[in-house]
Structure of Type II secretion system protein:
Amino acid sequence: MVPPRRRVRLLPPAGARQHGYSYLAVLFLVALTAAGLAALGQAWQTAAQREKERELAFRGGEIARAIAAYARATPNPPPQYPRRLEDLLSDERGFKPRHHLRRLYADPFTGQPDWELVPEPGQPGAFSAVRSRSEQALLREIAADGSSVKQARDLLFAARALEAAGPASAASAAGSAASR
């Protein structure tokens, strides 16, 4: 006769019970890493947005200064404003071509040199200011002149603000013109 088999239940070794805790610790570490990376990504996105806004102010200010220089370089009064952005690159109105702008700056928000040209009153077809076509929201809510801005297209870069300031303070006025 064969003795009946008994089922023996073996307990796992003492160290084997801790594998579940190690798994939970790894999951917690992964969750903390994901949260940290999400926060870092948000900080990078904010920094990139601020850089685009600074670049928009610089490029718009440069174009406004070029428009003012174009108007000052008019051979006969009254000052004439450009009809196209390309007129700022090469001004053929005099004996010698003048270059008021080195290159066409791209709008940092659209990536294209597709600035909206703001018409000059009294000169059909000419423009005296530019603004971005982008409707992207800005981080800053108040412009340098105290006006409220919500979108990139709310900032107006006008040559008239630079002309009123005069040539001596044109560089400092460009900063305030950038926020209109």
